[in-house]
Amino acid sequence: MSDDVPLQLPRYVFRRANGSFRYKRNVPERLRPLIGKATLYRQLGDSYREAMQALPLVHARIEALLNDEANKSARERSLEIIRGALGDEVAEMVLAETVPEYSPIEDALNELGKDLHKQKMPTEVVQQVYTGKLKPDVLTLAMTLDQYEAYKSDTPKAAREIGQRVERLRTDMKSVFGKQKLKYTPLTDITRQDANDLRDHLLSRVSANSAVRMLGVVRTAINHVIVEHSLTIPNVFTNLKIKGAGASKHDRLPLTDSQLTLLEPAFSGDAIAWALYVTLRDTGARVSEISGLRVKDCDLVAKCLDISPTPWRSLKTTNSQRSV
Fold first, then answer.
1. With CB atoms counted within 10 Å of each terminal CB, which end of the chain scores lower, N or C?
2. Alpha-carbon distance 135 to 184, whole Å?
């Protein structure tokens, strides 16, 4: 590549007064409180050749920073802020925990932390930048939902279903708790009052039974991370009191014995209808599961039915595949 400098430099590339080149990128206003800077600079090199060789990687890293910022943990964001403000070398020293005490680098980190505090950055980020000591990522409600969603997404269909439920919950939680609390407050600091606040918010827009189902996802997600991370914390979403929850005229409840007695004459006159009725009655399976059975699904020796998906009938959930 030639060192001849063209009249039109690539986007975001500027030539400094000393002849060197650097990358300059304005941070979108919505991300400035998160990143802690209005403009990002990166040195590209002393010559045009060096600058063009460094540009693709620098641009990719800046793009990743801006695109992923909303999803970063406090630890990740702290490191990115240090890297952007004080350079790669300082960031690597912080990562390796080798920042010398009472050094100019420590002073620079202290000053950067003070600036972030003035900009009302999250406390977890300010503390890590100020001290130059990164903390392990703290388990939060946002991380809890993410981990539960990943655990349940074992098939494309399951991923789509749980993804939709979790996304609706994220929206409701942001309305109740705010983005900062959802993403940064430790799960151990979430209280029973927080759970009640989410319950009340849900009841203001959905039925009591829908609120029960949605809160059930939160409760199960927290139970999942409690087990996976060997936590010894209570699940504040357990046994929430929800007025109006229970059976309604729209619920499909099990048939009572008296209802079964009334139904029998309607099916007893036809052999096929009677076989379907008896199978449904004695197995508790769904209508589509029984009506879609194949001959090979019926094990006469073991006296059981193999309920599994077929080309003409899928199952409601992965756990619906079973023998009865």
1. N
2. 13
